[in-house]
Amino acid sequence: MQYFIIAIIGYLLGCIPSGLFIGRWFCNIDIRDYGSKNIGTTNMFRILGPKPAAIVLLLDMGKGMLAVFAASYLDGGVLALLLGGIAAIIGHNYPLFLGFKGGRGVATGLGVILVLMPKVTGVVFTLWAVIVYLTRYVSLGSIIAAALVPILSWYFAYPWQFTFFGGIAALFIILRHKENITRLLNGTESKIKPGSTDNFKNKD
């Protein structure tokens, strides 16, 4: 029963549509009507710019962190922590309130591993930032960073359960990027460039 409660709390936290709220707050728009139609940080950056995107990044990370903290409060065991984190990622990717159409789980997953494996988080976030800066491909940075999570977890000698979780989460995130992978291989993936809230100032 305890695990069931942890899973429900984690999932519901993950379901909170940060991107939708921030899009409405800044410009009274539904971010799902623009760009890739995604509610995540990348689409927010492309459409509304760095500030709204940064807020969405922090909020989505916070969902993953809160899910792990809630699990820690209710149980504290390794399995409970992982269950809360996985549930939050699933909730973000398949939110109940948005017809199960959400983001790709990168920011929420980052929040989860920030609590569970801070050393890993520091390395993968830095690597992600460098890749995105050099190539302008967010998807490439996300895929490589996700793939390195279980490897770094093993290297830093975190519990094997964390390494296993890192592998499952990485696979999940990579599969969510399958269309991006196809475009990267075909040379048709779009490079990141910031949008601006100024584009919506005169719109209802």
Question: What report would you give on this structure?
Answer:
By secondary structure, the chain is an all-alpha fold. 72% of the residues lie in helices and 0% in strands. Helix 6 packs antiparallel against helix 7. The longest helix is centred in the first third of the chain and has 25 residues. The termini are far apart.
Q: What can be said about this structure in brief?
A:
By secondary structure, this protein is an all-alpha fold. It is built from 10 helices and no strands. The longest helix has 25 residues, at 50-74.
List keywords for this structure.
10 helices, 204 residues, mainly alpha
How many beta-strand elements? 0
Overall average residue pLDDT: 92
Assembly type? single chain
Q: Poorly predicted ranges (pLDDT <50, ≥5 residues)?
A: none
Helix content: over 70%
Q: Give the overall form.
A: globular
Structural class per helix/strand content? mainly alpha
Order of helices and strands: HHHHHHHHHH
Strand content: under 5%
The termini sit apart by 47 Å
Largest sheet: none
* Tally of helical segments: 10
Radius of gyration: 17 Å
